[in-house]
Amino acid sequence: MLRIADVDLRVINSLTKYPSIPTHHRLDPNGKGSLLEEPTVFPGPVIATEKVDGTNARIVMHPSGCWFIGSRDELLTARGDRVANPSLGIVETLRPLADRIARDIDAGELTVYYLEVYGSKKLPAWKQYGQGESAYRVFDVAIIDRRMLAWEIQRVAAWRDGGGQEFLPERDLIASAAINSMPLTPRLLTIDGSELPPTVEGMRAFLEPFTQTRVATTGVAGSSEGVVLRTPDRSLITKARFQDYDRTLKRRAGQR
Asked: Rounded to the nearest 5 degrees, what angle is found at the Cα of 188, between the Cα atoms of 187 and 191?
């Protein structure tokens, strides 16, 4: 059995970082956040899920039985730590879940759960979701070959930057979440990629039914951040945020 003492924590951190999601319409590099009329083309089915406005987090289950909790960029704590990084309330929210998963999982490989932690008063958009109660939703799971733990950090970075990460397809993701009693980000609809509006204005109209969040913890539901679009096999992922489309259309209107 592998021991944590024998593993480079930088490798674990790099192996398990979630990639940045591009905007559905390409951002204008000179447009200060404006979108171009250059949409991503999805072949076949597209799954649309709510983009929850919180902070990206991860739970890493190591083959040794140890677990790690991290933010998007860094590991914050590990199983048995007495001192944890309190950043954004991630550890406080996810530690009970990590302990519960560790009791049930047989981690032959490196298993990574990607979650959005939201609702806490430590996060800017907390008022959209309730009275400050912290919550989480799972949006992806990855299984990583344990042999990669022995790779040098430069090789890991090149693998990740080259799109080497693979995530469970939709059916397996749903099954994994059900086994571990973890709530997923809301599934909004599934359509064919050809039905997605090609224009910025058309896409904003397409998003309109999803302006209200479906994951409020208490009280009246506030605003959603947007929608994430994925192929069922996770080979193509984009995000469509309300603020990007509203900003673009407002600027265009002001230029007329």
From this structure: 105
103: left (phi over 0), alpha (psi -120 to 50) or beta: alpha
What Rg value do the Cα atoms of the chain yield, rounded? Answer: 19
Number of structural domains the chain divides into: 1
Tens of pLDDT, residue by residue over 120-146, are 999 999 999 999 999 999 999 999 998
Residue partners of 93: CB distance under 8 A and separation at least 6: 57, 117, 120, 134, 135, 136
- Distance CA(40)–CA(42), nearest Å, equals 6
Q: What is the pLDDT of residue 63?
A: 82
Phi, psi values for residue 153, rounded to 5°: -60, -35
Tokens of 178: 């059900």
pTM over 0.90: yes
> How many C-beta atoms surround the C-beta of residue 59 within 10 A?
26
Helix (H) or strand (E) holding 237: strand 237-241
**Domain range for residue 180?**
4-254
What CATH number has the domain bearing residue 88?
3.30.470.30
Confidence of residue 31 (pLDDT cuts 50, 70, 90): confident
- CA distances for 71 relative to 15, 140, 183, angstroms: 13, 14, 19
